[in-house]
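Quick start: read one record
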Amino acid sequence: MNARSPPIEHIPAIRIRRWGRVRKGSQAGTYAQSFEDMILEMLGRIPQSRELACTTPNARAHAIGEAAARKAALVAGTLALPPGALGWLTVVPELFSIWRIQSQMVADIAATYGRGWQLTREQMMFCLFRHTAAQAMRDIAVRAGERWLVQAASLAAMRTAARKIGIKLSKRGIGHGIARWLPIVGAVGVGSYAWYDTRQVARTAIDLFAMESAAGFSLGSDEGALYD
């Protein structure tokens, strides 16, 4: 049975120190390495879900996605409120908090489609980061007609993918840090991006698990594109 993700206060302090070094010395590689480590640690703790499978899961999956997007926007916007240099210290906690929300959302969507019992770290990585770093998913998922096949990957392949994602996220993290210098306006922008990003993750999860469950039972009348 998978353990839940650790509380945000349990993030090792070294990550904050790494972020400080990157900010002061512009060492983007160190920042990307920090994200790589965080991604791998998070994927090792897939959250459990209390959602139950149903025969018409799309409406429920949509509601789960919208609720998670609103929560992510609120959390990100709140953590982005501290201004200036102090705000830089909240960048890593902000992203880690959003990942926790999104990870739980993916687990809940998978359970709604009756796939929660076999949710893998590869599927979680695919759902969380496909829209961010599609090229990093080459060794994780392949396109087969209208569906994606997410395959088992070695630790080396997972680390390579996490490294590529980390490089992408390092640029986003710097942008989020700069936004801290724009009181209120920056927080609104960060919150809006978290809302959008979470909806993208939800869309990927719905597409993936709807296709996987299609052979098992009818999806019902609510089937269709939910995130146009």
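The longest strand covers residues 141-144.
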